[in-house]
Amino acid sequence: MAKDVDMKKLILDLDTGVDDALAISYVLGSPEIELIGITGTYGNVLLDQGVRNSLAITDLLGHPEIKVYKGLPHAGATDSFTVGKASAFIHGNNGIGEVDIPDSKREPESEPAVDFIIDAANTYGKDLIYVPTGPMTNIAAALRKAPEIANQLGGIVFMGGALTVQGNVNAWTEANISQDPEAADYLFRSGASTTMIGLDVTLQTLLTYEETQRWRDLGTAAGTFLADMTDYYIKAYETTAPHLGGCGLHDPLAAAVAVDPTLVTTLPINMQVDVEGPTRGRTIGDNERLNDPVKTTKVAVGVDVKRFLNEFMTRITALAQAAN
Ligand code: RIB
Ligand code: CA
Predict the structure, then answer these.
(1) What single string gives the DSSP state of each residue in 181-223?
(2) Ligand 1 atom having least distance to the Cα of 159
(3) How buried is 28 (Cβ within 10 angstroms: 0-12 exposed, 13-18 middle, 19+ buried)?
């Protein structure tokens, strides 16, 4: 569809695994916002595999116009990254539930992701929302290179962390934060306006085989892909978190809140990440900025589960029907 020049713009920064793919689907199914690019990161998969997935998925969903930019391959404080066993178990070795979809004929853009983020912030300013759903490595590098973008951007809505519940890597650490705690801490202290969509809310938004069957019933390639990929993820959750009765819609909830912030209730608080000691990777309030009247972070602590799931199914089902 033709995009309105006044429409809000969005960048997804993805370690393209299953729920990242669902976040792409949610945004492409949202006519009120324009996806201006996907920046690639590492986490569920290596950087190159994630970029490959983003190109292939946007093609399959009928949106080959979406540009994909390569980000940094590992945390700034390290010189390599290896996919964890838990990530490979939950998302499959290829990140998309071992489902085989055609490679895109397109290549990632030549501009590095960090420069694209800075250019986009300069171009769109407050009309731009940046949504990282993997480690915060790319946005931290962009903020280090161009600190002024912290106040230019319309906001950063990220999936990561846990404030009121335990982590999913260990008792205090969530996966996206654990992969680059320094980057997330830098983001919290940068002055940028951030909304944290952590496990506090994403483990309340669950999908089951009942919903994926609706995609399968469409009989389209996109519907079959989404159903097969997500069924793999639901099956993994039956082993890793059987008490939930479904899979966590982590990344699509962050995307949905970027589109409609009223889906969650939030606690304004200045946050930090523990970067040293036994609690490395913990997201917690910053004692030294507790009494600062300016709060740069809102932590989602409540979510309208019913409304979100309805939006999720409506938008993605329509997209998967129209795609092919
Ligand atoms: O902890 C959940 C997060 O880790 C999600 O973003 C998932 O895709 C992985 O990156
Ligand atoms: Ca992710």
Answers:
(1) HHHHHHHHHS---EEEE-HHHHTTSEE-HHHHHHHHHH-SHHH
(2) 6
(3) buried
pTM above 0.90, yes or no: yes
Our answer to whether residue 185 is catalytic in this structure is: no
Instruction: For residue 274, indicate whether it is catalytic.
Output: no
d(CA 317, CA 305): 18
Beta bridge partners of 82: none
62-114 pLDDT, tens digit per residue, is: 999 999 999 999 998 899 999 999 999 999 999 999 999 999 999 999 999 99
288 Cα–ligand 2 center, Å: 30
- Decide whether any atom of ligand 1 lies within 6 Å of the 159 Cβ: yes
Identified catalytic residue from 19, 185, 250, 251:
250
Find, among 299, 34, 264, the residue nearest to 158 by Cα. 299
For residue 173 and ligand 1, the question of a CB distance below 6 A is answered with no
Please name each of the domains of the chain with its CATH number: 8-322 (3.90.245.10)
Q: Which residue reads 């946007």 in tokens?
A: 58
User: Is residue 113 within 8 Å of residue 13, measured between CB atoms?
Assistant: yes
